[in-house]
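Example for tutorial group B:
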């Protein structure tokens, strides 16, 4: 069946999906068994992940070459995303936009930010002391001045604030390229194993991973409908990491959302702690509030 397991649509689901109960396969196997006079027992559900897309609806283009994990696979319906060739020396990683829900664990509720409409402006020429100081970083480490300067250059390329980008990495991994989450999410922005070769990413240096961070966010920015030169607010930027397929919306996810198959998507449920005002939705303003709590002092990298 592997030769038939292509990413195709049949009335809203993949008739050859791997990793779930397949009524069509059962029917044809049962028919063949009955014809041959052999007793047939239904195929039991198969465990594990599916790299094929069981939730792609007929009539919509699939922007990703690989599906997600179980019911977490959300496919945007308003654009067709074709990954461009890259000159990145790590192109074999085959980066893709992350759409699976990620688990964040904010400490205590923070007030909703009202500053996400535009990125905070800072003077890149002067070190900023605002924010926390992280241990194990600075001169003589892989997170020294070179790391900070590269983040600043990437932020200019993406047209965002470099301090927002550092804060997102702090929120996702404590700015640690060797981070591995319980769900396999790895690296500076917790690249999801459904979309990236995380084994290869874990072997990259922090500087090398920054190239992948830039490429991933740049592709997500384009796929979400932002102009290449569009200024990204802190809420925009985090949305492109958190749930890029919806990054153009103010409301990113709602409690109780289900997919076309009726299963709970869990975008909200896996990240309910980000709903600071407990109104059943997670917004870009709330993602901006998360960034406000995760700023890192530049002297972390310069000390």
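The residue assignment follows.
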């Amino acid at each position: 069946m592997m030769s038939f397991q292509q990413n195709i649509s049949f009335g809203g689901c993949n008739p050859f999906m791997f990793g779930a109960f397949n009524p069509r396969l059962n029917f044809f196997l049962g028919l063949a068994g009955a014809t041959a006079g052999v007793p047939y027992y239904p195929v039991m559900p198969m465990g594990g992940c599916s790299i094929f897309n069981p939730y792609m609806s007929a009539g919509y283009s699939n922007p990703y070459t690989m599906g997600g994990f179980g019911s977490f696979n959300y496919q945007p319906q308003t654009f067709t995303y074709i990954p461009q060739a890259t000159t990145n020396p790590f192109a074999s990683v085959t980066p893709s936009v992350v759409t699976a829900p990620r688990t964040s664990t904010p400490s205590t509720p923070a007030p909703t930010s009202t500053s996400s409409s535009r990125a905070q402006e800072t003077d890149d020429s002067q070190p900023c002391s605002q924010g926390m100081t992280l241990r194990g970083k600075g001169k003589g480490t892989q997170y020294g001045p070179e790391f900070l300067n590269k983040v600043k250059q990437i932020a200019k390329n993406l047209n965002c604030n470099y301090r927002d980008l550092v804060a997102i990495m702090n929120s996702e991994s404590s700015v640690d390229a060797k981070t591995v989450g319980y769900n396999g999410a790895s690296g500076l922005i917790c690249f999801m194993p459904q979309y990236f070769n995380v084994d290869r990413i874990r072997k990259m240096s922090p500087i090398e991973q920054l190239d992948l961070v830039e490429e991933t966010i740049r592709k997500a920015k384009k796929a979400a409908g932002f102009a290449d030169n569009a200024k990204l607010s802190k809420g925009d930027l985090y949305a492109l990491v958190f749930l890029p397929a919806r990054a153009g919306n103010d409301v990113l996810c709602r409690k109780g959302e289900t997919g076309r198959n009726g299963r709970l998507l869990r975008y909200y449920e896996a990240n309910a702690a980000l709903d600071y005002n407990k109104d059943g939705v997670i917004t870009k303003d709330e993602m901006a509030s998360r960034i406000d709590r995760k700023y890192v002092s530049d002297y972390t990298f310069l000390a």
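The beta strands are 251-254, 281-283. Compare this with the pattern of hydrophobic and polar residues in the output above.
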